[in-house]
Amino acid sequence: MKATISNSSKILTMMALSSLLFINCTKETQPEPEPEPDPDPVSVVEGCDTFTEQDPSLNTAAIDFECTGNAFLEEDALSADNLDGNWGRFGGPDGQAYLKLNYIDNPNASGINTSTKVLSITENAGIEPWAGFFFNLNEKVNFPSGQEAIAIDVHSAAPGQDVLFKMEDSTNSDVFKESRVVTTAEGAWETLTYNFTAEDSGKYDRIVIIANIVKTNDAEAVYYMDNIRFTTPEETSDAAPIEAAPTPTVDAANVIAIYSDAYTPITVTELPTSWSGSGFEAVQIDGNNTIKYANLDFTGIVTDYENPTDLTSMDYVHFDYWTADATELGIKIVNTTVDPADEDLESVGAVTQGEWVSVDIPLNNFDVDRSAITQILIDNLVADNASVTVYIDNLYFYASDAPSEPSSAAPTPSVDEANVIAIYSDAYTPITVTELPTSWSGSGFEAVQIDGNNTIKYANLDFTGIVTDYGNPTDLSTMDYVHFDYWTADATGLGIKIVNTTVDPADEDLESVGTVTQGAWVSVDIALDDFDMDRSAVTQILFDNLVADDASVTVYIDNLYFYKQ
Questions:
Q1: How far is CA 514 from the centre of its chain?
Q2: The whole model's pTM is what?
Q3: pLDDT digits (tens, 9 = 90+) for 134-175
Q4: CA distances from residue 499 to 402, 505, 506, 534 in whole angstroms, order as listed
Q5: Dist. CA 32–CA 28, nearest whole Å
Q6: Pick from 453, 539, 554: which is nearest to 494 by CA?
Q7: Residues facing 257 on adjacent strands
Q8: How far is the C-alpha of 514 from the C-alpha of 253, rounded, in Å?
Q9: Long-range pairs for 95-100 at CB < 8 Å and ≥24 separation?
Q10: Is the pLDDT of residue 310 over 60?
Q11: Can you give the pLDDT at residue 96?
Q12: Are the C-beta atoms of 158 and 132 separated by less than 8 Å?
């Protein structure tokens, strides 16, 4: 698991922003003073004479793209790390014009949409299939009674365009609701409807759209959209659970969680994947976060390709499902670190409809190398029947009797020794270390052997220190990363600090490993650029238990070194 100093998840951490002024088509009732010239004026469509707000309000009118300026995003105006403005895009390389938005004349003013102007979305060939854009609203959306749905007109070149529509809290991307609708028209405008509920009022002030989430473009692709507005929800035949899934009772120390309100999940980079063959919606069932897979063929989750999940210490996979119409269901786990990928699929057995069912499958049933799992798939096992809906909750792996110490050695490092400054590892020759541990460390210390490998055991860890050499500081200015492996059965927070004591006051910085995984060896690699300090003369390295007033945890450490790529 690669340490990231950020929130897991989530696909919108790559978003780029840019600003836009919306124009309101209203006539002035009396003369106004002449405004000061705009230093960077926006062209105005004839008949539109006032700028009224930077963000539109869906509560007051449909967003129809009629009274606007011309292209509000220049071809090279956005880079993926620019976080200013009210509009943005995501899913492409930094600094490149991978997605361009324009207001244009309606290319097919017929059928349900004869309006003058529409929004065009131009996508370059080869960009991520989940590339899209978003814009902020000027207030939270409040659904009118009887109109708890959003309609959007889409010009469909051919049936099968899978359009994702998401509403989100602009200040907290973890608060969202999304769904996907597939077009059926050919060469014509059609209206797609996305159902919400009255309970969704007052939550969201950002709209996110992905024009065709399952397609990777072989050539430049252009999509057209218009008229975002409230509408009457579409009737669905989907039955749904009225109670939440059962609350898990497995001790969190024995769990590697993927999705559950009961545990802290590990970092998951794709949920769902862009190549999933199903709809996806995060819903609340009786106050509990739950996944709804509509039209399920198969659907995927990627944990982290760069940091596969080691399940060798786990005994079972668990999840809860609810369905009104599925008749067969399975789960697949995949190791993509080998070629060909190592995978296995197991059925849940007879499917029970209309109630929550808890599934526990022994991991030994999966004929797969579980040391580096990167994908998890939920499969509808009935061929040619992707019309079923399945609700999933509490997806996790667990050990039936979790060990209190590792039974296997930490992974053997593979970095070339010529690129390494080692502090502690059997794999390399360490530099001279004058204090390990320091006399002022707030922990126990024991050098132990784990499966024949020298390992450090820090008991009752508050913080613990290592001094390289005060008289001969270590120059890390040519190194790119710090690496170490940890194993713990009970710690929930862990960080590493590096210190330069050659200056007064000492120059130091502390970085967290992120979500702590228990019961398995975890490989941590943190970019040294994340440490805001002078790395040319480092003298101390500290491991910190980041949970205040809890120094009862034990952490095993191995393969502590710095390296360059």
A1: 14
A2: 0.42
A3: 888 889 999 999 999 999 999 988 887 888 899 999 898 878
A4: 35, 11, 7, 9
A5: 8
A6: 554
A7: 396
A8: 16
A9: 96/124, 97/124, 98/123, 98/124, 98/127, 98/131, 99/123, 99/124, 99/127, 99/131, 99/132, 99/133, 100/71, 100/73, 100/75
A10: yes
A11: 56
A12: no
Count the neighbouring beta carbons within 10 Å of the beta carbon of residue 105: 10
- Judged by DSSP in three states, 443 sits in coil
Separation between Cα atoms, residue 390 and residue 300, nearest integer Å: 14
- Can you spell out the DSSP letters for 210-275? ES-TT---SS-EEEEEEEEEEEPPPP------SSPPPPP-S-GGGEEEEE-SSS-PPP-SBSS-TT
Higher pLDDT, 397 or 325: 397
Give per-residue pLDDT as tens, 374-421.
999 999 998 766 678 999 999 999 998 767 889 889 999 999 999 999
Closest CA to 516 of 464, 553, 466: 553
Taking Cα atoms as reference points, which of 136, 141, 114 lies closest to residue 53?
136
Q: How many other C-beta atoms lie within 10 A of the C-beta of residue 384? A: 6
Alpha carbons 354 and 399: distance in angstroms, whole number: 29
Q: Which two tokens stand for residue 272?
A: 């769902």
The token pair that represents 281 in the structure block: 């919606």
Q: SS3 for 325-394, per residue?
A: CCCCCEEEEEECCCCCCEEEEEECCCCCCCCCEEEEEEHHHCCCCHHHECEEEEECCCCCCCCCCEEEEE
Go through 410-421 and write b for each residue having 16 or more CB atoms within 10 A of its CB, e for each that does not.
Answer: bbebebeeeebb
Q: In what order do the strands lie in the sheet with 330-335?
A: 298-302, 375-379, 330-335, 342-347
Query: Taking CA 500 as the corner, what is the angle to CA 497 and CA 502, rounded to the nearest 5 degrees?
Result: 160
Residues shown for the chain:
565
Question: 3-state class of 311 per DSSP?
Answer: coil
For residue 361, give both structure tokens.
């499958």
Q: Residue 97 has what pLDDT? A: 55
- For the segment 244-302, what is each residue's pLDDT rounded down to a tens digit? 999 998 999 999 999 999 999 998 999 998 888 888 988 999 999 999 998 888 999 99
Q: Which of 197, 192, 168, 170 is nearest to 181 (CA)?
A: 192
C-alpha span between 281 and 288 (Å, rounded): 13
Concatenated DSSP letters for 262-309? SS-PPP-SBSS-TT-BS--EEEEETTEEEEEE-S-SEEEEE--SSS-B
Find tokens 């529509």 and name the residue: 165
Asked if 112 and 231 count as a contact pair (C-beta separation under 8 A), the reply is no
pLDDT tier at 26 (50, 70, 90 boundaries)? very low
| Confidence band of 82 (pLDDT split at 50, 70, 90) | very low
